[in-house]
Specification:
Chain lengths: 499, 463
Amino acid sequence: MRQLPWLTLLIFWPLLAALTMPLLRRSRTACRRFALTASLIELAMAGRVAFFFAGPKADLPLLEDVAWIPDLGIRYTLTLDGLSLVFVLLTAFIGVCCMLASRHDDAARPALYHALILASLSTVQGVFLATDVFLFALFWEAQLLPVFFLIGIFGHGERMRVAIKFFLFSAVGGLLMFLAVIALGIYAADSFQEPTFALDALTKLELPVMAGRWLFAAFMLSFAIKIPLLPVHMWLPDAHTEAPTAGSLILAGLLLKTGGYAVIRFALPLFPEAVATFAPLLMFLGLLGLFYASAVALAQEDVKRLIAYSSIGHMGLAVTAIMAGSRLALGGAVILMVSHGLTAGGLFSMAGMIGERLGSRRIAILGGLWNKAPRFGAAFLFCVLAAAALPGLSGFIGEAMSIFGLFQTHRPAGLFAVAGMAATLIYLLRLARDVLFGPPRTNAAFPDLDARELVLMGALALAILWLGLFPNAVLSIIADPLDQIASLVWPTTAPRLGL
Amino acid sequence: MTAYFFEFFPHLALAIGGLAVLGAAMFRAHPPRGLLPGLAAFFALLPGLWAFWPDTVASGMTTFFAGLLSVVTLATLGLLSRYADRRGFAGDALYGLLLWSALGMLLLAEATNWLMLLLGLELASLCLYALVAARVDDRLGAEAALKYFLPGAMALAVLVFGISLIYAGSGSLDINESLAAGGPLVAAGLTLALLGIGFKLSLAPVHLWTPDVYQGAPAPIAAFLSTGSKTAVAAALLHLAAEAPTDAANALWPALMGIAGLTMAIGNIGALCQKSLKRLLAFSSIAQMGYVVMAALAVENGGGEAALFYLAAYALMDLGAFGAVGALSNNAADRDAIESYRGLGYVHPWRTGALALCLLSLAGMPPTAGFLGKFLVFGATLRAGYAGLAIFGMLMAIIGIFYSLRVVATLYMREATAAHPVIPAPAGPAAGLTLWAVSAGIVALGVFPGPLLAAIARIVGAE
């Protein structure tokens, strides 16, 4: 079975499924069934690939490498190591959640709706698997297209303006990074006597200091926009709020993660010198994001917008942890991102349910849902507590590791991170209070979770619980790749701290 | 004799093809509907077949442009035949002039002699003036033809003056020889010649005729105009840039850099505020030529290969975009206002899909040819050391993304309005097939550029 090109299948199976969707456009049910089946097959394939990691670790990572444009030294190289695997699994899982998330958004053009979701899964898997920098840049740009259409066609409010805003923000970063990729290729061609874009080769490149810093800045700008880091976060609240539920799931669960993943996979090993120089600035921006997001989230009137701001805060903490220069915090950042993908996914799904049931997501008309819809209330509280890093749930492991790591290397930053998490608690608890408790502020009926929604929330809750109770499964899988990256970036301070 | 025949086979095919079309109309006053375009397509196909012949004797540039122009002409014929038929301006002159214009472009692209360059340019342009005005009852078309003709005549005068200066300074009409001679007269002549070429290539600040002409010309003719003529003139520019003497290059290159930057800026920013799709595409084609000039500056560092690939990609994108505009129009006038494209994506998914794909490719989105074209052009520019220009170009490309997206968003994200009927004339099988082929070509060049890149590398290596 190992002979099958699993990684290629992981990327192109959803795309293939997306391309066959138009055949089913007559029937909404057929579209839903087919899309759900396709995403389940994707999850099964991701699980099959994960199985390789359970056996003897002789021939890992999985590698698929074909010459693509030989004249330019561009290769079709996909690599699956532990770090990629975690995100590949997350992508496949969130993909299934997207298919279950909504029964309202796909009313108008079900085939197109599901095809766009599948296509975006495809491009995101590409980002997580590509290790040829050109190929990565291609997927990086390509992942904008399906989400652009998803927001613009199926979104709410001023969807067209929001979609264009989202696209432009990301494209600005993407194109400058594209230029940096080209420049990197030229440096590589000069120093190795033959053109190459292979990540392994490029990490051995001796860049001039200033050039390295500029290129890092271009890469980092692109990643920061996607993460999003503070001054370039403006696209996020609009996009998350106006996107259809599945779009929000993809944005928060996957697209933001591609940013964090790319920092770890590409920015760190390619430009170690620049990382050391810019780390304090990036940590500062990450922490600033944590406080800023908390402050702004407190003032939000819309549940979905509030959750969107919480993404900025959580991802800011993840960036701070990545840049901390501590191996422990680096592992924590990965857990934090996966956990955020799950909790934000759950919260956005439920914000979508509120919108579908009441026609509005304003906090002013909510309240008392705990009594009206107990199952909904339990799921909502569970996700809020997971986002607030309750011990035993996934958020806790990530935040604890990040903060321990930060204290090892940057004590003040660690202190601020603790304070920032406390600030996070304030708005999360306020969210739970205003939505779930107190007297109901409208008389509108609020049906409880139906079977489909129960399956969705149950799956998410199980994943959150599993990650919180048994983080070691993930930690041991990502240990080797992260060790390698840490030894490239922080060669002197890379003893394996803690886990 | 046979060798000569084989060497000039594409030229003969195009010239005889034009005559054959005219002749066929002479013998049959009312030829059956598909005869003339079919005849023209047959003769337009021959240079393409010749280009793929295994052991050609001709220069690489001739082979490349015989192939490219064959594709462009065939695609134009496919887009034009039903379009012209339904609007009542199909005829022997239309197809004959199209073939002869392609012949002029081929001569221009491969010219190694100043007189041949001039001759090719004029043959191509004279036919095009008439083609733009082909729809006699359309006042916009006549106006466009005049607006095309006057700057064209001006460009010709400047070019001829430049060539005469070069001849006076070097005593040779061979392009390589005369430029190698160098000297102030040659440098001055080269400046004027480049100015004349800049007119034809619609580089800023001598681009003003372009939007008006593209808007007024029938859409398939605008497709031909913006692809065939632009690519051939760009080939001449590449040739001159590669052969320019050092002293002239030192003086001219900073100016050319400024022109490249200005062209990208004016093209992209100009497109931003257009309400007419054809004008928007015209400004976009101005911007694309800015990228080509950027590649021409880097001709010592692989800019030639990059520019040739970009030209091929650009030809497909503009053929598709203008072709789709033509296929989506009704008989009275081309569908021009961007507003009138609202929600069209769901009514005519295939034709609109081709338009959207071309626009995304013009914006440089993967997995299209535009993405790889940008990669090559900016790679050459960075390699030649023009980092500032490259960054500026990228920023302009971002503006390019914005207006392309705006149109794509109009196609898919807004509801159709009653003010604009959504029923265009049927596109006809030839136009449909052409749009399919062009779209497939755009994706194929973006995903498997290897064969074309290898062919281009052979050409540039042989030069």
